[in-house]
C-alpha cells in the first residue's frame, strides 16, 4: 500500500514549505478592508489553502498508488504520440497559445476583466483544438461563471474594469449585480 519514494516525500515537503513561507509573508500586509470581511489576506490565504489541499491530495494518491503508469485510463493511448513541430501550422499554433495570455493581459486595462475573459477562454479552447461551437460556448460560460463566482462574489476581489465605453459600462453592470448580491445575502 505504501508506494512512496524519497522523491515524493521531498516534493511534498518543498511544496508545503513554499505554502507556509507565503502564508508567513501574508502577515506583512494583513489589513482590514471595509468592504471585505476577510481583509487584504483573504484571497491569498484561500489560494494557499486550496494549494495545500491539492498537495496533500497528491501525496495521498502517491501513498496509495505510487507514481507508476496506469493503464486503461481515459485519454491515455497505448502508443506514445510524438510531438512534431515540422509543419508551419503547428508552430503557428504554439506561438498563438503562448501569445494569447500576453494579449489578454494587454487588453485588461482598456477592455477590463469582465469583458475580456470570456473571449480569452473561448479563444484558448479553440486553440487547444475544440471545433464544436456549442461545446466552446458552454465551456466558456461555465468557466466564466466559476471565475466570476470565485473572484467577484466569494473573494470580492477588485478586478480591472476597463476604460473604454461599452466595456466599462458592462463592468459597471457586473459590479452593480455584485453589490446587489452582497446586500441581498448579507455577505
Structural write-up:
The protein is mostly helical. The chain has two domains: 6-65; 88-185, no CATH class. Helices cover 67% and strands 0% of the residues. The chain is built from six helices and no strands. It has helices at residues 6-25, 42-65, 88-111, 113-127, 133-154, 165-185. α3 runs antiparallel to α4. The longest helix is centred in the N-terminal third of the chain and has 24 residues, at 42-65. The radius of gyration is 21 Å and the shape is globular. The termini are far apart.
Which key phrases capture this entry?
187 residues, mainly alpha
- Average pLDDT taken over every residue: 84
Helical segment count = 6
Number of domains: 2
Query: Can you write the helix and strand succession as a string?
Result: HHHHHH
- Cα(first) to Cα(last) distance is 45 Å
Query: Percent range for helical residues?
Result: 55-70%
Radius of gyration, whole Å: 21 Å
- Give the low-confidence spans: none
Shape: globular
| Proportion in β-strands | under 5%
Main sheet overview: none
> Which class do the helix and strand fractions yield?
mainly alpha
Number of strands: 0
Write the layout of secondary structure elements.
Layout: H1 6-25, H2 42-65, H3 88-111, H4 113-127, H5 133-154, H6 165-185
Helix pairs in contact: 1-2, 3-4, 4-5
Amino acid at each position: 500500500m505504501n508506494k512512496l519514494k524519497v522523491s515524493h516525500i521531498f516534493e511534498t515537503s518543498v511544496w508545503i514549505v513554499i505554502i507556509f513561507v507565503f502564508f508567513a509573508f501574508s502577515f506583512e500586509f494583513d489589513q482590514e478592508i471595509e468592504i471585505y470581511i476577510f481583509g487584504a489576506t483573504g484571497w491569498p490565504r484561500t489560494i494557499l489553502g486550496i494549494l495545500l489541499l491539492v498537495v496533500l491530495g497528491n501525496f495521498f494518491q502517491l501513498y496509495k498508488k505510487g507514481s507508476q503508469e496506469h493503464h486503461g485510463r481515459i485519454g491515455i493511448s497505448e502508443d506514445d504520440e510524438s510531438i512534431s513541430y515540422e509543419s508551419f501550422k503547428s508552430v503557428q499554433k504554439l506561438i498563438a497559445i503562448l501569445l494569447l495570455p500576453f494579449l489578454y493581459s494587454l487588453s485588461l486595462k482598456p477592455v477590463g476583466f469582465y469583458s475580456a475573459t470570456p473571449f480569452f477562454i473561448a479563444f484558448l479552447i479553440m486553440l487547444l483544438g475544440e471545433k464544436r461551437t456549442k461545446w466552446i460556448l458552454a465551456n466558456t460560460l461555465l468557466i466564466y461563471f466559476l471565475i466570476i463566482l470565485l473572484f467577484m462574489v466569494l473573494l470580492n476581489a477588485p478586478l480591472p474594469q476597463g476604460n473604454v465605453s461599452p466595456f466599462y459600462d458592462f463592468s459597471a453592470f457586473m459590479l452593480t449585480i455584485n453589490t446587489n448580491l452582497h446586500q441581498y445575502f448579507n455577505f
